[in-house]
Amino acid sequence: MSNLSITVTVKLFAVYQEVYGVPELVLTLPSQTPVSHVLEHCIQEHPELEQWRSVTHFGVNLQFVPPDTPLSHGDEVVLIPPVSGG
After folding, report:
1. Residue 55: CB partners within 8 Å, gap ≥ 6?
2. pLDDT of 71 above 80
3. 3-state secondary structure (DSSP) of residue 49
4. What is the chain's percent helix, strand, coil content, to nearest 5?
5. In the list 40, 62, 67, 78, which could disulfide-bond 36, CB 3.0-4.6 Å?
6. Tens digits of per-residue pLDDT, 37-56?
């Protein structure tokens, strides 16, 4: 059963939304994929996002989570880059 795929919605903010030009992505991933894989996917598609890897936090279903949190079908993922203020 571990080869089942799941679909997650990725909400994009700040630099991620600027790079993609859309507010969200829908990804199909293997079941139990860790949330950190979503960031890897984005960096593979847009290598300029590499500079944000170490400072990006993860949210799943409106809760902050560690990078190794496994995703489930229907989860809403948020990549949280640092927010600049002034």
Report:
1. 81, 82
2. yes
3. helix
4. 30, 35, 35
5. 67
6. 999 999 999 999 999 999 99
